[in-house]
Design brief:
Low-confidence stretches: none
CATH superfamily: Aldolase class I
Number of strands: 12
Helix content: 40-55%
Radius of gyration: 22 Å
Order of helices and strands: HHHHHEEEEHHEHEHEHHHHHEHEHEHEHE
Structural class: alpha/beta
Mean pLDDT: 90
Distance between the termini: 55 Å
CATH topology: TIM Barrel
CATH architecture: Alpha-Beta Barrel
Number of helices: 18
Shape: globular
Number of domains: 1
CATH class: Alpha Beta
């Protein structure tokens, strides 16, 4: 083989060093290619108790594992030689357009994950053109989120409270602040047994014990944010200083029934979504009273362990009720292909929770943006590889569950 001196111009382009990045964490967030990458960064950046609150589930966490396993073990059946040059990920939810077939689910204590909390999530969702449901257990008020993201499709999540007047106050404030939908969560009559929180001694707000002090020394940035920003408390209710489970058992009404939904209908003029459905009979009952949408959900595995995996139930509910109301699912969604599979099996949309919290913990608002970018790219690529240009083209023939 004839040797030659290297072309110095080409060599310089190969050896060109990258400009140094002063913000190492921002660079790592930008390089993340999966939600799993961001989860890894989140685990490094946040104290163990905070990460475990987001990452964990009830008891042995069987439900959460099954949800993820089912998404991972399904099979796709693509079509070929189809024009996929122009992919459209938009969909209509509750009578208005959504740029993507997912919304951000309500999650509590979001400022515990990162000081910028719910406003950061809301702004990212607003830019992406998707809905965001603010939790009653949020750490930013109804009004502050509305001011932070005035063009956001805002949903408000509510539980049935022992104190009905407190629930009515939430509804009035949400309506006054332009929230378009109420998400009523019905699978929390009592708190699930979230063992990671028990073992970690997690309280709201976090208490500085000997154990948390040592952990905090390894996460000084998180503690600096906590101690130099407004106090971490429930923005929609009075301050509370106990465990999550104790709060739930104290505040939520375990005697609530479907008849209580009439109470909400009298005082809420917007769309009504009921979240936490795990049986066809309950879905039928809600369809009969005219709710606008339901979410097939096991609360991300955080309530009843060994509960139904929503993806398993989806086809049956869609076949029975798909023409009467919109049907969403959540739980275990960590990849855009999970979203596509759910849409193919009949879901109108998917609610994403843990994934955006991993992004928030890893990189704040930029981390949430990165989650949206990753999921969007995965959705578009999966659609193209399946041979479909629009979400409406998807049907159960594209997916087989094991």
């Amino acid at each position: 083989m004839k040797r030659q001196f290297p072309d110095m111009v080409a060599l310089r382009s190969l050896l060109a060093p990258r400009a140094p990045r002063l913000d190492m964490w921002k660079a790592r967030v930008e390089r993340a290619q999966t939600v799993g990458d961001l989860r890894t960064l989140a685990r490094i950046r946040t104290p163990r108790a905070v990460f475990d609150y987001t990452d964990g589930a009830a008891d042995s966490e069987v439900t959460l594992a099954r949800s993820r396993e089912l998404f991972g073990s399904l099979s796709f059946h693509p079509r070929v030689l189809k024009d996929v040059g122009d992919i459209d990920t938009s969909i209509e939810l509750l009578g208005a357009s959504s740029a993507l077939p997912f919304a951000f689910a309500p999650t509590g204590f979001t400022r515990m994950m990162r000081a910028d909390g719910e406003p950061a999530v809301a702004r990212a969702a607003e830019r992406a053109g998707i809905a965001y449901a603010l939790s009653t257990m949020g750490t930013t008020s109804i009004e502050e989120v509305a001011l932070a993201a005035p063009r956001l499709r805002r949903w408000f999540q509510l539980y049935l409270w022992r104190d009905r007047e407190a629930g009515l106050d939430f509804l009035r404030r949400a309506q006054a602040s332009g929230y378009e939908a109420l998400v009523l969560t019905v699978d929390v009559p009592v708190a699930g047994n979230r063992l990671r929180d028990v073992y970690n001694g997690l309280t709201i707000p976090p208490q500085i014990t000997a154990r948390t002090f040592i952990d905090g020394a390894m996460h000084p940035g998180w503690w600096f944010d906590l101690l130099t920003t407004p106090a971490l408390e429930f923005a929609s209710m009075n301050s509370y200083g106990g465990t999550v489970g104790a709060l739930i058992n104290q505040m939520f009404d375990p005697s609530a029934t479907i008849d209580d939904l009439a109470f909400l209908r009298e005082h809420w003029s917007g769309k009504l979504i009921v979240k936490g459905i795990q049986r066809l009979e309950d879905a039928v009952s809600l369809a009969d009273i005219g709710v606008d949408a339901i979410v097939l959900s096991n609360h991300g595995g955080r309530q009843l362990d060994r509960a139904t995996v929503p993806l398993r139930l989806l086809g049956t509910v869609v076949e029975e009720l798909g023409s009467q109301m919109e049907i969403y699912i959540d739980g275990g969604v960590t990849h855009g292909a999970d979203v596509v599979a759910a849409i193919a099996l009949g879901a109108k949309a998917v609610l994403v929770g843990r994934a955006y919290l991993y992004g928030l913990m890893a990189g704040g608002e930029a981390g949430v943006d990165r989650v949206i970018e990753i999921l969007t790219s995965q959705i578009r690529r999966t659609m193209a590889l399946l041979g479909v240009r629009t979400l409406a083209e998807l049907d159960p023939s594209y997916v087989t569950l094991p």
